[in-house]
Structures are given as structure tokens and as C-alpha cells.
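User: Predict the structure for this protein chain, please.
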Amino acid sequence: MAKENRFYLTASELSDLMGISIGHAYKLIRDMNAELAKEGYIVVAGKVPKRYVEKRCYGYTLQ
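Assistant: Here is the predicted structure, written as C-alpha cells:
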């Protein structure tokens, strides 16, 4: 599957996009996945939906 057509971002991709360390990206993913799980969504450990990242990060849009 083409990279741009994937539904989830990995910690490595998130760290590159946001200019943060991979460790911090994992922390953000854990926090966002906890929020999603609390709302009843299915979550994948170590990955976060691209659109949720876009929603949570003010002024950020994915291409």
C-alpha cells in the first residue's frame, strides 16, 4: 500500500512531521490512543489515525 494512502501514522512518521523525538512521539500516541479508547474507538498500539492527529494539532493539515 502506498505510504500516503495509509490510515495510521507510526511514531517515526509522527516525530518527522512534528519535529520531535521518537520517544515523545510514542508518548503523544499513547495519550491520543487513550483518548480514543475512552470514547469507544478501536486503537492500534504504536500508531494513531492520521485524521485524529490533524484534529488535535491546531493549524496542522496532512497532505
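The chain has one domain: 3-56.
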